[in-house]
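Recall the central idea of this unit: under ordinary conditions, the amino acid sequence of a chain determines the structure it adopts. In this exercise we apply that idea directly, starting from the sequence alone.
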Amino acid sequence: MAPSSSLYSSGRLLPSRTASTPKLVGRWLRPTCSLAMNGCAAGAGDRGVVSLQETRVLPAASAPQEAVGQLRAAVAALNAEPPASSCGIIRIEVPIRQRGDAIEWLHAQRQSSLPRCFFSARAPLSDTPAIAAAVTNNGNGCHKEQWEQPVSVAGVGSAVFFRGTDPFSLRDWRAIKRFLSRDCPLIRAYGAIRFDATSDASVEWEDYGAFYFVVPQISPSSVKVNRSTIQTAIINLNHVPTKASWDLAVTKALQMIKGRQKDLVKVVLARCSRYITDTCIDPLELLACLKVEGQNAYQFCIQPPDAPAFVGNSMICDEVVVNPSKALRKLPRVQHLSAQLAARLRNENDEFDILNALHPSPAVCGLPTEEARQFIRDYEIFDRGMYAGPVGWFGGAESEFAVGIRSALLGKGHSTLVYAGAGIVEGTNPSFEWDELDLKASQFAKLLQYQEQHICYQEARNMGTLI
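Accordingly, the structure predicted from this sequence is:
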């Protein structure tokens, strides 16, 4: 990989490459960055671990301006004296006592050519110092990071990204893990996997491929998210499928469930709702609004370069213990049955096997899995993309994934696609399940409908979901 890095503190963003000229955006500075290599290129999964994975922690800074100077000097030293290793990742950190706002910071990074991401912590954070981090592609030295709690992370740019058009495989997983190390647990690959990678991707999901992960080039950690509001109104709404098509699909599913062969026990059918608003919606502002609603949920935002943003407010467990009994988990509009499980991995490859075995879960696909997946292929008339697929991150010391439900895809225009699903079992009433879809989508709808305005409802037959 060619040497490249950028710096972030909770006040300024600076480039490390002398050829780059920073652009002033308000009180933030923005770098000119190039996109990194695809770590899943042919044969990448067959190579060994990269020759260098390390973290360098600089002295703590009392203010962002002080951190900027330290980061600038550290990266300048790397440029002046390049390391011997030809391939690897270095993370440079400066602890900052003042926590920054993730939305404000990401807003300043509005270069369309750069990927962005945000992943919330699993649990509320106490008042701990923020971390300013820079990731570079080679260097020398070593440092072990110690973390006692989960942290929320925002990211921009890519030190390395991973994207493929074939289903996510063990070789792809190995291609990602070769860049990660237990000694550097905050060097992570954030992203998502398609619900069904064997189906054709529609145009709005093309940039995501069958899977998409990124190690951010700049990733402030332990960030906060301030409250936000969206001042917009819905002017048009249509659903795929229509209510009539939904009823037909549910009726067909019930016939199979009740049939003599009992080929199908449960199937989860979904709906894609296209909202047209009078103003463009920033995915980061929507994310901030969702965080207010979802204190017990997992907020995420993934946006490949110059692509729509996948934003969600999904369920995740606060802790993992051995407890096979089911409990009721309540959210503002819906509730779920949940169970907590734990196990010890025999070897590192088990991580991939577990992820592969858990997806798709009966909660988003059905039972038996293959029969339910085939029914969805036959009767759903839109592309789920990353909706209902695994969303999260891989790390050297741990990994974390949720199911990408309660999610939406936001394009650059005035269009937002909102996804919701409902489980079909014996005794299901199609109209009741349609109402449940409205309820699940309402967390997005109420945020988009800032003021009362007549909505033009349309029910498209087999429309494409261009955004």
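Residues 430-448 form the longest helix (19 residues).
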